[in-house]
Design a protein that fits this description.
single chain, alpha/beta, Rossmann fold, 8 strands, globular
Length: 264
């Protein structure tokens, strides 16, 4: 059981579940990756809870939130609705993977309503056509079906075998999230990432692992991101890949803390 408060907020056509640490510090809203859920942030939340009021959202189609709606879906609007419903004023917004992409889109659409932005290895990749997107969605649905056919113990064993650098505390929520992922949750992007990133006005940290270890943000993407927007700083976490915080938590945490305490 989580020691933190739980709740739900209404969003268009459904609801988002969340866990919240509380406290007097600034609000920090966390958006997770593709087959994760809010509690997959718990190790980071435990490290930062003394200084921030942390809200870990279950994205639509994940955890205890509503399933994916039919048709196109805007996860950035869900983040906006959650922030409004919770009464958060100029929070820090942070995301991993597809959650980072949604976080960037939220910051783009709400200038002046975000204090800082942290993006952990977002999928800043070229757009693909509808046929390719449909094929990718089909492969993802098969992956989710395979996860759901496995027991929690088997999922944890799989995670340990695939990710030996992770901390033991990372696996329970990661495994539980696999049974709570909507097979229709694969996002389809219609806007180039460059257009989203270029218009963010808040200080932004793009933190990522090494592409040689599976990171999505290559050195070329990191350089392009910095050239697009003077508000962006980038940090490469050595020895980590796409799951940057899980694969080198000490260096990741140090970089995040440095960014959060830095003056704007």
């Amino acid at each position: 059981m989580s020691p933190w408060a739980t709740g739900r907020v209404e969003v268009s056509g459904g609801h988002l579940a969340y866990h919240r640490t509380g406290g007097e510090g600034p609000a920090l809203v966390l958006s997770h990756g593709l087959t994760d859920k809010g509690l997959c942030w718990q190790r980071l939340a435990q490290a930062l809870a003394g200084d921030f009021d942390i809200v870990m959202l279950d994205a639509r189609g994940h955890g205890d939130s509503s399933p994916m709606p039919p048709g196109d879906h805007d996860p950035a609007q869900d983040i906006a609705d959650a922030i409004e419903q919770l009464g958060l004023v100029a929070p820090i917004v942070m995301g991993h993977s597809v959650g980072a992409r949604a976080t960037a889109a939220y910051a783009n659409a709400h200038p002046g309503k975000v204090w800082k932005v942290i993006l952990e290895d977002p999928p800043f990749l070229p757009l693909i056509d509808r046929a390719a997107a449909d094929r990718r969605a089909g492969r993802f649905a098969e992956q989710v079906a395979n996860f759901r056919a496995m027991s929690q113990d088997d999922l944890i064993a799989l995670g340990r075998a695939q990710s030996p650098l992770w901390h033991d505390d990372d696996f329970p929520a990661w495994a539980a999230a696999k049974h709570q992922t909507d097979p229709a949750a694969m996002p389809v992007y219609a806007t180039p990432w460059q257009d989203i990133l270029a218009q963010i006005t808040a200080p932004t940290l793009l933190i990522h692992g090494d592409s040689a270890h599976g990171g999505l943000v290559t050195p070329e993407i990191a350089r392009e991101a910095k050239a697009l927007n003077p508000h962006i700083v980038t940090v490469l976490v050595a020895g980590a890949g796409h799951n940057t915080r899980r694969e080198n938590f000490p260096d990741y945490l140090a970089a995040v803390r440095d960014f959060l305490v830095a003056s704007d």
